[in-house]
Amino acid sequence: MSSVVGQRVWLVGASSGIGAALAEELHHRGAQVAISARRPERLAEVSRGRFATVPLDVIDRAATRAAAQDVRSALGQIDTVIWCAGYWQTFAATDWQADEFARHIEINLLGLNNVIDATVPQMVTARRGHFVGIASVAGYRGLSGAEAYGATKAAQINLLESMRASLSTRGVAVTTVCPGFVRTDMTATNSFPMPFIINADEAATDIADGLAADRPEIVFPRRMAVTMKVARLLPVRAWSALTARMARSS
């Protein structure tokens, strides 16, 4: 997506945070934008009449398919789908919460599955399109307190990478976005340190710039990207010792 001018973009999970900021940024750069999330009133606040708004709960597969069709009715064929939805609640294995773990799976993985189901087959048929998934650097290595969130983000990273390989023969691009800490409603309740944290509008600029450069992976901010890329190279024993020490100190 070297230029967004005239591109028809559907952002799923855009009532606040990164999704809302990215809708603003892409609109500013000339895209036609549709936004979805569960809260119609928040969609209206974000849109202010500029975007097509399609309320949606992504855990409902039939509703997701219907929402995709509503977006097509509003914009025409969808050029780019951006998955911005997500769920985060910290808990550690010392106090396992099965319902919370299931909730992460339900939204972060099964919701993503529903959006892929509603959009990617049409892209394959048309032999064109772009699917963008916002995952997280939390999926790179395991961290105490991120047992559920990190597991789903690791799965998203793997899924998107696999899709990129499969869809490359069908003219469909896939981009993985891995933010570090971003100031949003989701991170507002975090009581632990969040190094290199940035604002949502900064995140939106980084994503839009990465899409303009046709990068298959977008990781930001730069210092967090370097930190987590290095962390992936550490031996398991060294990472285990480091994260155990972090868990004890917190």
UniProtKB/TrEMBL annotation:
The keyword Glycoprotein does not apply. SUPFAM superfamilies: NAD(P)-binding Rossmann-fold domains. Pfam families: adh_short. GO terms for molecular function: oxidoreductase activity. The keyword ATP-binding does not apply. Gene3D superfamilies: NAD(P)-binding Rossmann-like Domain. InterPro entries: NAD(P)-bd_dom_sf, SDR_fam. Keywords: NADP, Oxidoreductase. Belongs to the short-chain dehydrogenases/reductases (SDR) family. PANTHER family: DEHYDROGENASE_REDUCTASE SDR FAMILY PROTEIN 7-LIKE (PTHR43391:SF14), RETINOL DEHYDROGENASE-RELATED (PTHR43391). This is Short-subunit dehydrogenase. It comes from Janibacter cremeus.
